[in-house]
Amino acid sequence: MRASLIQLAVSDAEPPAERRARAAALVRAQEGADLVVLPELWALGGFAYELWSQGAEALDGPTAEAMSAAAKAIGAWVHAGSIVERDPDGPIYNTSLLFAPDGELAHTYRKIHRFGFDSGEAVAMGAGQEIVTAATDFATLGLATCYDLRFPELFRALLDGGAELLVVPAAWPARRREHWTLLARARAVEEQAYVLACNTAGTHGGVEQAGASIVVDPWGRVLGEAGAEEQVLTVELDPAEVAKARAEFPVHRDRLLGIPAPVQR
Description:
Shape: globular
Helix content: 25-40%
Radius of gyration: 18 Å
Mean pLDDT: 96
Distance between the termini: 54 Å
Keywords: Hydrolase
Domain CN hydrolase: 1-239
Order of helices and strands: EHEHHEEEHEEHEHEEEEEEH
Organism: Kitasatospora cinereorecta
GO molecular function: hydrolase activity
Strand order of the largest sheet: 5-4-3-2-1-14
CATH superfamily: Carbon-nitrogen hydrolase
Family: Belongs to the carbon-nitrogen hydrolase superfamily. NIT1/NIT2 family.
Strand content: 25-35%
Largest sheet: 6 strands, mixed
Low-confidence stretches: none
Number of domains: 1
């Protein structure tokens, strides 16, 4: 299968409407791909906190409309990164959107781990409550977002949910680029799964982004890695490698945590 990661440059100078149109054009240019992935919060900016409340949108808002049409145009699965979702009955959320090749919104994932400690996303947004996997015609996807990479228990739960390809959109800063690469490879090795991690380029909210989008195979080998600037990273991968890696090195059968303790007699 062919996966294309669109490492979109996000800047404060570009209006969101213009960036939506540009992103949709980039998706449409990936005809022949089976899966297209965009970064986290690319329409407004992952660190553009002041834009979130006013720029939040519904699941059928302008970003979803543009990405749905683009997915249908090329007949591919499109992980449209994430939006600031406005929930009329609750807080705003950092919500990923996955579109099927017919343009239908197949799955959503509200980011569970919110970054910022006592500021930013951590206080402005609600936390997701559901672990999400998505069956496609080529593999089962496990959905996570950016800061989630630092929490291996989420990825173990995705593994238990059948995930074979872990898709991680992000707005990861340049100053922690080494962590990004290390954690992406670690999650691939731990779960014996592909990791497709798509980051933003550029600078927004005063924070320079790392770029460095990366595709890692189930053995931890890097199949492709982007630079710091906007680019499309396209990689050919074989989903059958997941089952092969798990059969050749069956580490998961030796898991002990979570097994009930023996009864004392």
